[in-house]
């Protein structure tokens, strides 16, 4: 039995950027700018949002291996962490997240109704097809929406939309 796995995570410097922005706002913001309640509330919201973003990018990871898929999102609010064995996957979809500019996601739905979402749009363009093919090969009993061929061609289409892709997620195997 081989131990091949694909691990997806964000680079550490992305979290540092957000933590640095929060620290800069706390340290360098002149007290005169915080004169009103609205400005103080805006500053608190900015610092809280940047701290959360830093924690999210630092803690996110996804692992795809022969046994199944595991996603760790320790700082996620709307999407929780979880794992799923390939034999439990009932449905595989490529979906758009919230809103028009949100990333395309690979959604795995188990027979029990649990969902795991892996962002595809943030993968490097060269890796999207290989991740989609890896999932298609291992989740044999799952129903594809669209079909397996359309699924891989949809992954190819996402990969060609280079203007949307930041390629922030690292792919390690």
Give a quick summary of the entry.
By secondary structure, this protein is α+β, with helices and mostly antiparallel strands. The chain contains 4 helices and 9 strands; from the N terminus they run βααββββββαβαβ.
Describe the 3D structure.
The chain is built from 4 helices and 9 strands; from the N terminus they run βααββββββαβαβ. It has helices spanning 12-28, 37-59, 125-138, 148-160; strands at residues 5-9, 61-65, 68-72, 82-85, 89-96, 104-110, 115-119, 143-145, 170-172. Strand 5 (89-96) and strand 6 form a beta hairpin. The chain has 2 domains: 10-57; 61-172, PH-domain like (Roll). The mean pLDDT is 77. The protein starts with a strand and ends with a strand. Helix 1 runs antiparallel to helix 2 (37-59). The strands form 2 sheets. A 5-stranded antiparallel sheet has the order 4-3-2-1-9. A 4-stranded mixed sheet has the order 7-6-5-8, with helices on one face. With 173 residues, it is α+β, with helices and mostly antiparallel strands.
Write down the secondary-structure element order.
Answer: EHHEEEEEEHEHE
Structural class: alpha+beta
Helix content: 25-40%
How many beta-strand segments?
9
The CATH class name of the largest domain reads Mainly Beta
Instruction: Give the averaged pLDDT, no decimals.
Output: 77
Count the DSSP helices.
4
Low-pLDDT regions: none
